[in-house]
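Journal club side-thread
Mid-discussion, someone asked how the predicted structure for our own chain would compare to the paper's figures. Pasting it here so we can look after the session.
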Amino acid sequence: MSTTGSSIAAGTALAPPPAGYTAPDLERWVQEPPKSQTRTPFQRDRARVLHSSALRRLGAKTQVLGAGADDFVRTRLTHSLEVAQVGRDIGTELGCDPDIVDAACLSHDLGHPPFGHNGEKVLDRIAEDFGGFEGNAQTLRLLTRLEPKIVGDDRPYGLNLTRACVDAAIKYPWARGEGPDPDSPKFGAYADDLEVYRWAREGSVPGRKCFEAQVMDLADDIAYSVHDIEDAVTGRALDLRRLQDPMERSAALFVVQDWYMPHESLDALDEALTRLEAEPYWMSGFSGTFRAAAGLKDMTSQLIGRFTRSAVRATREAQGEGPLSRYAGDVVVPESTHLEIAVLKGLAAAYVMSSATQQPVYEAQEEVIRDLYSRLWNTGTQYLSPLFAELWRAAADDTARRRVVIDQIASYTDVTARRLHEVLFDRDITHITAADTPLPGLGSEL
């Protein structure tokens, strides 16, 4: 299988690209046989992500509260579906291809490991000496290498999406240590994925996300901020009436500032919260009744509409009325909207993620991940799934083999990680292997 970046077999005609896109945007990392033209290449990309095993696994991965902690609580999968809906609507209004945005939104969290951002931090510390770990870089790795779909003679090529779709999924368009803040843990590609990363970014502006990735990023922020508040309220971790107490309000806004807006004053954050509280749909109390549940859902919908309308209006005022795609424009988010979104994200952080009750949970999660890494690294292919065992055997050196172990652990759901840890550390494991351990994630798929 060739790595020419061409998506067309010799002599095969291709329908012209959609408005706002060029032939290079439709190219794939490796050539594929011609397919029916009843679907656009971008519709095909979206379908590949939607049917991927990586997307299914997000159903058992932590969003904010642990997956399975509550029948109502969102998982990475439900969050991704909601981001895709918000992003698709914004993209349609602004004129970029909605299927590219949809595919990018569905993809944006594929690389997250078990236990959410806590798991991401633990894996980054473990992998510090051989490239680190970052959920968005892992997403690129899944899309272009690890998700089983297209396999060549020399290596697997993941879902082999079009250039435009891969670029749209790159939230941090730089390698490790090369971003605007060299100390930031955020980056978009590991060293051994730079070749496909550079291919995806051909024709790009260095350090600048393409327009579709900007829409995805905004949709993620909107969904994250609004839905995490909804989960916190229904889970009784947050009672919005408590924010009327001056001391509690100040403490909560300090967390907002510390986590998300370190360069903003507490007064500016308080003003943003006050604006939201002044809206007629803002719920200061939640009783759990039908009327209260409907009111909370209305608040969720109204906030999403408020933020999307604000960004669409500001973008149109700045960029004009024509369709916007690729590098033809930028998403504009007013500072007032940016602050309001940050306040909601920070409130979820204050009452859920930074809660003292979560610290023992985080410590237990870290122990699970560190124990699994140690055992998997020291036992070769014994506990790797067949897919990762194949990658281990093909690895050129210990650095590549360590990355295989990280890839395997990152693929686990919260449930699988805990159950495998129980099997490996709480039982006699002398004769247990991946092949006969009846756990999800240890079969033929990732």
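Post-session note: DSSP finds 18 helices and no strands in the chain.
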